[in-house]
Design goal:
six-stranded mixed β-sheet; about 270 residues; globular; alpha/beta; single chain; 11 helices
Amino acid sequence: MKTLFKFLLTAAVTFSSVVATEAASIRHMRAEKSDSTQIFFIGNSYTFYNDMPSMVKNLAASLGMKMAPSRCLKGGQTLKGHLKHKFLTETLADGGFDYVVIQDASYTPSYSTREVLENVYPYAHRIDSLAKAGSPDVKTIYYMTWGHKDGLLHHQTDYPLDDTYQMMQDRLKTSYLEMAWENGGLCAPVGMAWERVVKERPDIELYSLKDRYHPSKEGSYLAACTILSTILGKPFESTYYANLPEDTARYLQKIAGETVADNLPLIGLKKGQ
């Protein structure tokens, strides 16, 4: 009897853990329509780690800008995969968005040109088109991610040009800039800002140490700062530090703002826009 009880208890705990993990990896939510700036994040764990959309909201609030983030986020999901689910298409059709932030899986845009042409660009274009059909004045923002610390080790193919951090970063940079260009959108150059921090301040750990490709809190904060700088079209200074040391947070704000300001035409912006 005791053995059976222990078995059932273990099974229940295991099931609860699986459900909790699965629930934690899926975040679909439509924010209430209001006078706030409506921003819709489409992506996966690179967006929901450390609740990065809330970081963007809090940074904006510190500047007197009200922002309401909606989310279509699922761990490991590609843009192609997102398009199979009603929540995305129905939410985009419902409209009312000022910005839609689009982020593919961390690895797919680093694949070969042929693979990216087949499995990334068409789905980015489809999501972009749906966003603009539902919200005619929307600005789409392509969230450029970063190379994995050790290059692409999971979801790896025989393609050799993403085998190191730098090569993977170069591939991601090209793919995201082209997605933004081809669709008339903006590119939030998070990966470019990340590259600069990696070179200048290796003491700031942007990666989660558990896998060396997801973002640490510092990495998510850098992403949030870069996305907000892209929306503003310029650098900013904020007193919201997300519980990071003030000097670290201010440095990450600075790098995000400078990366945007130094690359305005490249990322789809004009001076004074």
